[in-house]
Amino acid sequence: MTATDAKASRLDFRSRGFDFASFAFTGITGLATLFILAILAIIIANIVWHGWGTFSWRFLTGSADQDMFDVNKAGVLPMVIGTALRVLVMTIVVVPVGVITAVYLTEYAHSTALTTRVIRGAVNNLAGVPSIVFGLFGLGFFISFIGRGLDGGAAEPLWGKPAIVWASLTLSVMTLPLVIVATEESLRAITPGLREASLALGATKLETIIKIVLPEALPGILTGGILAVGRAGGEVAPILFTGAAYYMRDLPHSLTDQFMDLGYHVFILSTQSPDIEKTRPILFATVLALLLLTLSLNLVAVIVRARVRKRMRASH
Amino acid sequence: MTNTPANAKRTVGWMGIHRGHQARPLEWLAEKFIFLVSLTAILMVFLIFVFVAREALPLVLGKMNSAAARPVIAAKEMDKLKPEELRTYLGLTAAEFKQLDKEALQALMEVREEEAKEAPKDKDATLNTTEWRYLFQPHQWSDSRPEDRYVWQPIGRIHKYNLMPLIIGSLKTTAVALLFSVPLALAAALYVSQLASPTMKEWLKPAIELLSGVPSVVLGFFALMVLASFLQGVFGYQSRLNAFVAGIALGLAVIPVVFSIAEDALTSVPRAYTQAALALGASKWQAAWQIVLPAAAPGVFAAVVLGFGRAIGETMVVLMASGNASIMSFSLFDSTRSITATIAAELAEAVFGGHHYRILFLIGAMLFVVTFLTNLAGDLIMHRLKGRLEGKAK
């Protein structure tokens, strides 16, 4: 065998010429990925392009009491405050419950026990319940059952009507799975050695969890909270019947008041506007405000989560 | 001291409060508290079903009557009725009935008689339209055209509650959404999990999942203001808002769901599978298509099932982009109305506790049951797949 023969056969072995199927497959799947990203980019670019002109500090801090359909006067402050309030109350409720559930699932539960599997199943199921069903649940449970029960048949209902507190509670049920899953992920990323060291030094299980495990898991807990806020901030269907108001003269004073909401306002402006062409700039600017809120929160969550994952890979 | 069976038992005392060699009541209390709180998720799923179904229950039990004209008993014959019969005839609650004296009841009966005189003389007026057969089966109404045998028209003289147009509407938009989103999301999942380099993957995955951060009301707005006109320009159909537009926008909401789950399933296939295929001379795409995809097939199926659950339950997109006309039609380019959009649009106007209100809760409960089953199925499939793959990998 000559040297050239050997070289030829090695070449023959390594390159089989142009592999069309491989090329086509990579091309098609790559294009699909690109297409999805392009749609996302188009949506964002379109909204920024049309909304930027009206989006200003005055727009963000202006009230809606003069004319919410007038381009030069309309502001979204009541909606921003309403959305912020309902999301804040929701966070106060959902984060402790979600974190404690995640602690139970990772630190205490036997992973094969029936209770654990049922809890996991319930969490996954809760994540898939349609948002409008949460709205019905809020109306049927919080407002008519608990609210009217608290009122006890009073002539002027205080609790038995749509209010911030009911919208927030409804949303906290909806976002519970997000917090649980994110916290659980970060709890699992902590090396078992850390827990064992703490236990070996004489700390009890509870002390270990409170002083060692939870501080380590803080980024994950934050991610869960942020994701929940981002998700709840843009949801409209659950608050349609539990608290959102079409228009209110004043800002909400207490938790039993109704509120104006950014997402609901987008819905009103796009379907019930007296003159869609005239209100178009307000509409795009309102959408921009909403999108800035939810997307920036999601972006922060993605970054924190990526760090947690990186650390998890490094530790295992 | 010898180890007698009595003190060798691990759990001593009430519910293990004296577990171990030292009693720690605080630890015990905290553990029980944590356990109880973690049951919240189960409790909530249970409560959602109970309280949505509770509002629909009178309807299911056949206690509601939506007939426009009801049978009349002459006011003079009031004395012949038993109190209980009188109460149900006037439609009063027990508390209300107690408060009213005989004269007030007499007056109420006279009002009923007056109403009956003015009531329409119509063969449909005496029908209780909340019965099952009027909810699902065709009926020729006296005041609608012969071709409209399935009618959803809750406002009006006769309340028509046929659910078929809504069910068809939901299925139509869902079908379009799945046909649009599933191929795209699966292709992207294959690319990201099998072909992209690790650095690319770190960027692509969060970027696609960012799509789930776009609120559905924004997707609905985008479909209404931008997509609808664009698609009408391309395809040139009649009504600007229809099942097709809503379906495409809905697909955008479904893509991140299907992508995440499918990508997760594909990634959980052990790397040894791919490596073995590559070592045997397969190209990367052959390994992905013929080895990894079949191994992860149940997970991909679960992704589609959960995508279906998301699509059929989505509200704002359909409410804003589908045109909201409850027409019984199988055409994708007709304006249509879904179950979710109907609840969102009509519940605020429905009388609290009335038949319209209860019908809306009934379809909400139906929706919950459907998504509950799809979630359960998806969950079980994923669980079994992971168990199988991890078992094989070891």
Write the layout of secondary structure elements.
The complex is a heterodimer of chains A (316) and B (394).
Chain A: H1 3-14, H2 20-51, H3 57-61, H4 77-108, H5 114-128, H6 131-151, H7 164-188, H8 192-200, H9 205-216, H10 218-234, H11 262-271, H12 276-315
Chain B: H1 5-8, H2 25-38, H3 40-60, H4 83-90, H5 94-99, H6 102-118, H7 132-136, E1 152-153, E2 160-161, H8 164-195, H9 198-209, H10 216-235, H11 243-267, H12 271-279, H13 284-295, H14 297-313, H15 316-321, H16 339-346, H17 355-393
Antiparallel strand pairs in B: 1-2
Helix pairs in contact in B: 3-17, 8-11, 8-14, 10-11, 11-14, 12-13, 14-17, 16-17
Describe the fold and architecture.
Chain A is mainly alpha-helical. Chain A has twelve helices and no strands. Helices cover 73% and strands 0% of the residues of chain A. The longest helix of chain A has 40 residues, at 276-315. Chain A is globular, with a radius of gyration of 26 Å. Residues 9-14 of chain A have low confidence and may be disordered. In chain B, helix 8 packs parallel to helix 11 and helix 8 crosses helix 14. Chain B contains 17 helices and two strands. Chain B is mostly helical and 394 residues long. In chain B, strand 1 and strand 2 (160-161) form a beta hairpin. Chain B has a two-stranded antiparallel ribbon with strand order 1-2. The chains are: A mainly alpha (316), B mainly alpha (394). At the A-B interface, helix 2, helix 4, helix 5, helix 6 and helix 7 of A face helix 2, helix 3, helix 8, helix 9 and helix 10 of B.
